Amino acid sequence: MTQTIENNRVRTKTIQVSEIFGPTIQGEGALIGKPTVFVRTGGCDYRCAWCDSLYAVLPEHKAEWASMDTRQVFAEIQRLSNNTPILVTLSGGNPAIQPLEELIDLGHQHGYTFAIETQGSVAQPWFSSLDYLTLSPKPPSSKQVTRWERLDRSILYATTNKYDREIQICLKIVIFNEEDYAYARSVAERYPALPMYLQAGNHTPPQQAQEIDISGILDRMDWLIQRTIADRWYEATVLPQLHTLLWGNKRGV
Ligand SMILES: C[S@@+](CC[C@H](N)C(=O)[O-])C[C@H]1O[C@@H](n2cnc3c(N)ncnc32)[C@H](O)[C@@H]1O
Ligand SMILES: Nc1nc2[nH]cc(C(=O)O)c2c(=O)[nH]1
Ligand code: SF4
Ligand SMILES: [Mg+2]
Fold first, then answer.
1. Is residue 4 predicted with pLDDT exceeding 50?
2. Which of 5, 99, 234, 244 could form a disulfide with 13 if both were Cys (CB 3.0 to 4.6 A apart)?
């Protein structure tokens, strides 16, 4: 591990990185359409039945991940963005299991802003240094169990603001069926102040690359809109994964 001194601080944290790519657009949720660079970390404490990023989750892909220190990750972000400050989206895997606080600090010093995508299963005090936190607890179709106290703590940490920085928090739930929809409603009841994004699920197995089931996604999207409107759930925002519609399950977009 290399040690580099900058602004009198040692930047030695080692981050497991699956891929760094962009600029592209954020294809999901509250920041849909925003230009961003993605840092996809390697490793996850969940195994969602329909995960579209298993190459950043399963240990058998570990050999494809790079151990990078904070400065190396930031140098790649600067290279991709031509040194022009941009929104950086931290995803994974679960980025909350990586030591990302240094990277966020370093990026902020250079004018970059930071969003994270995480399932809310690991709460980190450094969530408070983010600009955007998307919490994506997993519905029954994922076959994962929600630890509600951890989700509560994620929100608590994010809003315990030691940096005097405004953080925007939202919820994003992937929905495949009626049970998932009911789960989303219960999450919204628990956190009524947080904006809720309902995301139509993509059933296509990742290994099928481009050949995604677009009509299946659009059918679920149509059903989800009808379902939400019939319920008069007017606070919710219903969206597809725009990048999936545009580029399928291709990596690095
Ligand atoms: C790959 S995950 C990585 C970040 C973090 N582990 C999480 O789940 O929030 C990024 C986003 O993609 C969503 N996602 C994963 N597989 C999906 C699928 N098959 N269809 C729709 N959304 C999916 C997740 O729910 C999450 O909101
Ligand atoms: N364009 C684009 N938007 C995204 N939004 C969330 C993504 C993710 O995999 O976390 C993602 C992704 O991989 N690509
Ligand atoms: S939590 Fe996110 S990265 Fe982990 S398995 Fe589920 S969708 Fe994939
Ligand atoms: Mg994705």
1. no
2. 99
| 8 Å CB contact between 137 and 151 | yes
Question: 3-state DSSP call for residue 175?
Answer: strand
Q: What is residue 19's DSSP assignment? A: E
Which residue's entry shows tokens 């309902």? 198
Residues 139 and 70: their CA atoms lie apart, in Å, by 33
**Dihedral angle of Cα 171, 144, 218, 169, to the nearest 10 degrees:** 10
Eight-state DSSP code of residue 173: E
Residue 98 beta carbon below 6 angstroms from any ligand 2 atom:
no
- Choice between 240 and 204, residue whose per-residue pLDDT is larger: 240
Per-residue model confidence as pLDDT tens digits over 69-108: 999 999 999 999 999 999 999 999 999 999 999 999 999 9
Residue 187: both structure tokens together: 């999450």
Among 41, 89, 117, residue to substitute to test ligand 1 (most atoms within 8 Å of Cβ): 117
Q: What is the pLDDT of residues 128-183, one digit of tens each?
A: 999 999 999 999 999 999 999 999 999 999 999 766 778 999 999 999 999 999 99
CB contact at 8 A, 130 and 104: yes
Please state which of the four CATH numbers 3.40.640.10, 3.30.365.10, 3.40.50.1980, 3.20.20.70 is assigned to the domain occupying 5-245: 3.20.20.70
Q: 53 among the known binding-site residues?
A: yes
